[in-house]
Amino acid sequence: MRVLLTNDDGIQATGLHVMREALLARLPDVELAVIAPDSNRSASARSITTRQPLAVDEIRFGDGGSGFATDGTPVDCVRFAALGLVGDPPDLVVSGINHGSNLGDDVTYSGTVAAAFEGALLGIPAIAVSQQAEAGRTDFQPRGSAWEREEFEVGARFVAELVAMVDRLGLPPRTVLNVNVPAGPVRGVRACKLGRRIYRDELKLEGERPDGRRHYRIYGATPGYHEEPGTDFEAIDEGFLALTPLRFDLNDGEALARLGEFDLATVFQRALANRALTG
């Protein structure tokens, strides 16, 4: 099985290397390729690089292995693999282990989850995995760079076993498994749904220059979440590893049906008439 390992924290991130070692140790037949950003790209979501060529460097690891670092985004990394940078396209994408959780609505901002979604969109099964920064803290802000290898061990071992199971059983098309690992002792694992965030960001003026240019801070407030049974927030709060299946499908069937009540032909005719009047 060919596996692509990527992340959004950068190719030197501790979580990526612990995940790499677990995959190699627990899956002896794996053909593992590593393509990751050359520096931190957290919260880059599904951004891609289209206006300039992408630089790629081969990086040697301490155990003699190697990977590729690019100045692109996590999604770019998956595209590189799919387009043949490391030979045949991967059979599965593993993105992580992220430094900090990716729970609930936060997945829409996450570069970690975006890389997994890119695999799913290309028909490649994908797993995103993230490690909670501190027990009792379910925001999306990692605590900084001081992460110990041991903090990622349980998540790495679990995902390695999950990879083997996905290889045997497969996943539904366009499905991503989003894994979040609680800080501290892990009591078990729960299959669950995404929870809903309560964002508390505020507009704060940080300073103003003599020329009138202002600097504002609009992110950073610790978010909350809606308490609801069966969610990834509940699982993490209770010390369980949260396994959430996600599907990339932006269609809204209910709204599409509602549009049938709209007189779209009249709207279109009025738009043409208005154009004639103003033209």
TrEMBL record:
Survival protein SurE-like phosphatase/nucleotidase domain mapped to chain residues: 3-200
Keywords, sorted A to Z: Cytoplasm, Hydrolase, Metal-binding, Nucleotide-binding
Gene Ontology MF term list: 3'-nucleotidase activity; 5'-nucleotidase activity; exopolyphosphatase activity; metal ion binding; nucleotide binding
Cofactor: record remark: Binds 1 divalent metal cation per subunit.
Recorded catalytic activity of this chain's protein: a ribonucleoside 5'-phosphate + H2O = a ribonucleoside + phosphate
The keyword Metal-binding appears for this protein: yes
Pfam families linked to this entry: SurE
Residues annotated to bind a divalent metal cation: D8, D9, S42, N98
Cellular localization per UniProt: Cytoplasm
UniProt cross-references to PANTHER family, sorted A to Z: 5'-NUCLEOTIDASE SURE, 5'_3'-NUCLEOTIDASE SURE
Similarity comment text for this entry: Belongs to the SurE nucleotidase family.
This protein's name: 5'-nucleotidase SurE
The organism of origin for this protein: Thermoleophilum album
